[in-house]
Hints:
By secondary structure, the chain is of the alpha+beta class. It is 52% helix and 23% strand. The chain has helices at 2-26, 102-108, 113-130, 135-138, 142-157, 176-229, 231-241; strands spanning 27-30, 34-40, 43-44, 52-55, 61-67, 71-80, 86-97, 162-174. The protein starts with a helix and ends in a 20-residue tail after the last helix.
Amino acid sequence: MNSNFNSKKLTAKLIVLLVLVVLFLSFYTIPSGKMGVLATFNKVADNPVAPGLHLKVPVMQTIAKVSTQTQKITVSEECYTKDVQTATLYCEINYNVIPLKTAKLYTEVGRNYEDKVIMPVIRGVIKNVIGTYDATNIVNNRENIRVVIERNIREELSDKYFENIFIQLSNIDYAEQFEKSILEKQVAEQEALRAKNVTVKIQEESNQKIIAAKAEAEALELKARALEKNSKLVELEAIQKWDGKLPTYMMGESVPFINMK
């Protein structure tokens, strides 16, 4: 009797313990910033599970949690420019998984979706965009390049599983030999500009002298014509040149009025 009673008591305890374990395994929570993907015998449900407390069937059902918060990818991609120069573009891409598409993403791609979907698109877009620019034009068109890359990545990814895609270019590096040639070109352009400025200055000074000489010649010519036409102007010219002193020499009884020299 005692033995049977103890056996029944032990069995009851095991049953209670099993029930507690089942209950413990049945409840699960999805934290804020994530969505749940529920699978029954590895068959994924069409609708994702929203954040909160939920119930599942132990063993039969499993739950995977997919983050819907902003994710960041740091990329360094080596590519060729239009003029066949090597350029390495460094950038950061932010994105979010579309909450309602987490189940579809998990079913069609799996957990490793960055390597399978996002990175191939990013690398392909960067190579295609950089390949449309000459190396010397990339720096001056940096913002336009960023906008085009961002737009193209969005077009390829937004219709699938992702949203809020933004890109920030951090740096663009070239091969050492090309960077050296660019520096030499900039120095040559600066020296050429300085030489051009000197030439322009000399030319301007020469033009000013020509203009001044021409103006003076025209004034003298006009004055000469006026003197030829009016003898009174000759006397006026002489008066204007006279310093107010009479000559210090005498010739006979006549006194010259004005020394014209």
